[in-house]
Amino acid sequence: MTRRVLLHVGTPKTGTSYLQDVLFRNRPTLASAGILYPADRFDGHFLAALDLMRLPWGGLEREAIGAWDRLATQVRAHPGTSIISHEILAAASRSQVGQAMESLGHGSGTEVHVVLSVRDLVRQVPAEWQENVKHRSTISYQRFLRQIRDPARRGRISSWFWSVQEIPDILNRWGLDLPPEHVHLVTVPPRGGDRELLWKRFSHVLGLDGLDLDLEAERVNPSLGVPETALIRRINRAANRQVAPVDYRPLVRELLAHQTLSRRTRSPRLALPPDVHPWVRDLEDAWVTEIRERGYDVVGDLEDLRGGPPPRRWANPDSPVEKQVARAAVDAVKALLLENARLQQEVRDVRGELDEAYRALERSYLRPTYRARAKAVRRLQASAMGRNALQAYRAARGRNSRSA
């Protein structure tokens, strides 16, 4: 059987967290169908991508050392279809793409397909700013927009944004040595459409149709509203110096942003400023034309890459309604109080277990045999001959403690 690799390389905010969650949880079902999803932990492909691209990521890059080679080894050993998925792979350089392709067996009999999930820039631009905020950034929305619109693309923000969002360039890097029919674009449906449609498109391109998969989401990357994002940005400005990255992720990104503030769905939604729409629409039009001319396999509709019109009322996240931010802050404080109460209960439970273990140990010391040994030791220690006998006994047993 010819080895076949389906390499999903992004882009961010296109349903990737949901896709990876489904693939990871359904590994046994996939394996029964001859499909390998090579991961022993949910973030296994993320670590592999960090390793391939040598990216610094809050210390995780040290944990990632060797992860890509281990993944590639599993893929080369599998005789059927393998699936790899992570959105930061979109930023890989040409040399990193070449290294990845070679390690997976491209050019040595393995049939490699690249899958790129894409969404209109009208939604991607505010989503990328919010992701920056959820990763400790304090940059304002206005400054973010100014940086990504800079033609020179100077600085980390602009460089990263275009490396994972400029669709033609990503396809140039990842699809360079592949026939067009081995490059697949999965378009995200417009806002308000069928929520299951995106999964159906993923399922089709990855060859999952007909498999009995558990599609209940356990891990997603939900979006925040305007006041909620403004609140997280203010928390970053106030606490970044005191809160280490290892603590920030579970407390701020997961507990506050994902588990608490994302549930406030009645807040104004983040959107592209009306005056930026013409610039974005020009880019979208150019991309649609270029992609159509290249002849890639499009799963969906290229018209999905043209974003919707400007909102009737645009909410500026740099100047949010303070009452809305205050209400979001109350929910955040409540979540932190509940989490603290939960942790305090865990501490009390552990202390109780330790106390019980101490009492059990104490009871064992009070057994008759222990008391008899202790009494004999005290008698021997009362004389020089006895002490010498004890010393000889301990030497014979090879012990250095003062107990018998």
- Distinct helical segment count: 17
Instruction: Determine the strand fraction and express it as a percent band.
Output: 5-15%
Provide the CATH top-level class of the domain at 4-120 and 152-222 and 269-306: Alpha Beta
Q: SSE string, helix = H, strand = E? A: EHHEHHHEHEHHHHEHHHHEHHH
Going by CATH, the architecture of the domain at 4-120 and 152-222 and 269-306 would be 3-Layer(aba) Sandwich
Terminal CA distance:
68 Å
- Cα radius of gyration in angstroms: 29 Å
User: Which regions are unreliable across 5 or more consecutive residues at pLDDT < 50?
Assistant: none
Looking at the structure, what is the overall shape? globular
CATH fold category name of the domain at 4-120 and 152-222 and 269-306: Rossmann fold
- Largest sheet, if any? 6 strands, parallel
Structural class: alpha/beta
Strand order of the largest sheet: 2-3-1-4-5-6
Q: Tell me, rounded to a whole number, the average pLDDT.
A: 92
Secondary structure: helix percent: 40-55%
Number of strands: 6
